[in-house]
Amino acid sequence: MNQKDSKHTLDPNKWIDTYADYLFNYAVVRVNNNDIAKDLVQETFFAGLKSAKNFEGKSTERTWLVSILKRKIIDYYRKINSKKGQAEVRMNFYDNGDNEGNWIEERVPQSWNNEAEKTIENNELKSQIDDCIEALPEKYAMVFRMKTIQEFETEEICKELDITPSNLWVIIHRARTQLRNCMEKNWFNK
């Protein structure tokens, strides 16, 4: 049997022990709330059980569960967005798109002498970035996480949240501007 012919199988009895921590960590980074992340993982396992008969074995069990979890996360954000109402603002972000997503990475120090200091500094930086994202208006934080952290495609975000690409880029631009100001005030100038 060659690689192409091998099929993956499901073993739901091992999902919690094998995948719960991974899926929880995946979810919590994307929704930034432990309780919601736990609920999403539970919903993922439940949906996996309900649709196990549709599993074709073309991917690993974990990949299949992550794809279910991604849909649960999108559904979660869609529910939040529908409650908040939608204001359309039309404006382009960067004309050429070259600067997209680079401002935080450009400011991270590139050389470190001490591994322990690096770990502490990275944890503090991550904590400050999380605090700054938390301080954003809810819709800005949601769109920023989906585009920048979760790496959803623009088209997918627009479809799921029922916004235009120009509105998405305005939100991303405003979120990045507020994040940059927050980071400059609370991290780079401390």
TrEMBL record:
InterPro entries named among the record's database cross-references: RNA_pol_sigma-24-rel, RNA_pol_sigma-70-like, RNA_pol_sigma-70_dom, RNA_pol_sigma70_r2, RNA_pol_sigma70_r4_t2, RNA_pol_sigma_r2, RNA_pol_sigma_r3/r4-like, WH-like_DNA-bd_sf
Key word Membrane present: no
Domain (RNA polymerase sigma-70 region) ranges: 16-79
Pfam families given in the database record: Sigma70_r2, Sigma70_r4_2
Gene3D superfamilies reported in the protein's UniProt record: 1.10.1740.10, Winged helix-like DNA-binding domain superfamily/Winged helix DNA-binding domain
Domain of life according to the entry: Bacteria
Domain RNA polymerase sigma factor 70 region 4 type residues, every copy: 128-179
Keywords from the UniProt entry: DNA-binding, Sigma factor, Transcription, Transcription regulation
Molecular function GO labels: DNA binding; sigma factor activity
GO biological process: DNA-templated transcription initiation
Family statement: Belongs to the sigma-70 factor family. ECF subfamily.
NCBIfam families according to UniProt: Sig70_famx1 (TIGR02943), sigma70-ECF (TIGR02937)
Name this polypeptide is given: RNA polymerase sigma-70 factor
Species of origin: Tenacibaculum holothuriorum
